[in-house]
Write a structure and sequence with these properties.
Helices cover 76% and strands 0% of the residues. It is built from eight helices and no strands.
């Protein structure tokens, strides 16, 4: 990332970029655990910053939020809570013979996660002050809720790649 790019990318996103796992060594449980922990913590920081920003805008809006605006805030906070649930669902990785498929799946999932984080960060950047809360909730909240849902889906797919054998068997019984 260039210095110019870093100037327009929030620090929390830079932290994510720095912690995107390198997948070589993902056949070693301890390597996976360490890299996943760092990556998931950095993702959690971004998500937390969005929740904090949303709550700040809601609490300090120029006028009280309408019932529909409060509902939009609740939906977004629910989406953020769902993301934390996904981040906390990490289990020990199943070390198997198909590491290249796992790497490819994780790389694809992570590319989608990064793209969605960037889109979410842009939307949240538009909610830069509580003064714009009403306009943002009316025009951008639905887009942000959609990004949160897509991000949740990507994290869920990523988790499935990393599930342990017992969970994978149990999950196959549910499908």
């Amino acid at each position: 990332m260039s210095a110019r790019s870093a100037a327009i990318v929030p620090d929390v996103l830079v932290d994510v970029f720095e912690h995107v796992p390198e997948y070589s060594g993902y056949d070693d449980h301890d390597v996976v655990k360490s890299r996943e922990s760092d990556f998931r913590i950095s993702l959690g920081r971004v998500i937390k910053s969005w929740g904090d920003q949303l709550l700040d805008a809601a609490e300090h809006a120029d006028t009280p939020l309408t019932r529909s605006e409060m509902h939009a805030v609740d939906v977004l906070l629910g989406g953020i809570a769902d993301l934390f649930d996904q981040l906390n669902r990490f289990r020990p990785v199943l070390v198997d013979d198909d590491e290249s498929t796992r790497r490819e799946s994780l790389a694809r999932a992570d590319a989608g996660i990064i793209a969605l984080l960037e889109e979410g960060a842009q939307l949240m950047r538009d909610l830069r002050t509580p003064a714009v809360a009403h306009r943002w909730l009316e025009h951008s909240a639905a887009d942000m809720a959609e990004r949160l849902q897509h991000l949740n889906d990507r994290l869920e797919r990523r988790n499935r790649v990393l599930l342990d054998d017992g969970t994978r068997e149990a999950q196959s019984l549910l499908v």
